[in-house]
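Team,

Forwarding the record for the chain on the shared tracking sheet. I've put the sequence and predicted structure together so nobody has to dig through attachments.
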Amino acid sequence: MKTDDLSPSFQTPEFLETLANYEEMVRQHCTRYFESNDLLLLAEYYVTQQKIKKAEEVISYALTIHPDNLELQIYQCNSLIAKGELDEAEQILNQLPDQQDEEVIYSRVNICLERGQEQKTDSLLIPLVESEAYDPDMLVDIVNIFLDANNETYARKWLDILFEHADNSQTLVLETAADFFMTFNHYQQAIDTYNQLLDIDPYQLDYWLNLTQAYLANEQTEQAFNAIDFALTVKEKHSKALELKGYCYLQSNNPEEAIQYFEQALPDSQAPANLYQILEACYTSLGKDEQSIIYLNKLLDDPEIPDFERAIYYQKLAARHLQLSHFDSCLECALKGLEYDDGYAPLYLILGEYYLFDNDQHSAEQEFAHAEAYATDEKELQEQIFGAYFRASYFHEALKCFQQMEEKYPLMVDKYYFCAAYCCYAIHDETNLMKYLVRGNTILQQFQDKNERLQLSDMTPEVEDFMKMIREAHHGIEEGSIHPEDYFDLPERPIP
């Protein structure tokens, strides 16, 4: 599998001139002549940038200049297939003069696969490969069709035919086999195959990159580090290699180091939006909301993202602003998100929490009701509402919400027993305080990191006093003066 097959073509002066001229033409709302091959490459470039709409616009324009160009027609046909517009795609194919052209047949195969008619593909493909004496290049193309369709049965069938009619040590055959193994999660076989390829060409960067991905997928982190270091030896500062080293550090639970490599990879990345998402998640996991906000804004700057994704990013942005007590920005982002998707429940949850911090409980409850109307997971919804009340110090309401959760979903509240206990502590509910302290210590067993479960950032005297109560309950259970069974009044709830 080649990871950057086309990237060198996108860096040539000729292509960059074509790109600049085309985008200037679009800005000026005028027309200009381009060669068909230049426009095809331009469409491929936009695809790598995840700008599918722009790619389609390029092809539509190209066909106004070169209406009879087969490659352009096939590209348009395949775009329609990708969108599920199969009848329209078939109409284009039916009008093409050479019905035996292999690209025409491949498109018909794709239509069959989209319609769930995989058996019909044999009648299209077998005559074709027989006429070409089972040409290995053609067989590779056919295997790739089924790989793209995620059809393991037929991909395996044609891979076996490829092995039957080609030299099994050929680079092309081994690359195709490695693609098959990776696509269908046969990672150890993929690893073995990439190592075979590296025995043939130890300086092939793509093999090292793909081997790294196989090791990561197989959770062999140490081997992944070794492979990616070889890749960076072959080509220092390579964007994809830097990105993969970032993934190695992520798999090692080291987001701080991962961030460094992801940010180094950004300037030359073919898919910067993916890195923006990863970096945003990394900074969020580290509690660095200001940096997280930077990458969320970068994602929102992309005019190509669909409305539902834009709503998600605005919800995340609102949450980060709320975490930083940027209340005006939180409200602005949440309302902006609803402009793109007014049925997205998490936006109403954020608005509800915003109103709690604004001491407007009535409005908060209205927003929570809106969230309930659109939520797809009632358990998660209740958990989030409980968290909102807790974070905003509405401890009476948080405790009531928790008790409802405990009654309806007793097995999901384990990690919140200390939060419930703190609610009781804050409202002076001594009876339930001891109950939840004991339940928390019994269920969680290990005393470590209980303050993190509370999500209490400042160790105020009140919090220190509460933590002391946790320790005392823990000690009481250990020495036998406190009996956990006395505090579990849920018969269906087993006591560890």
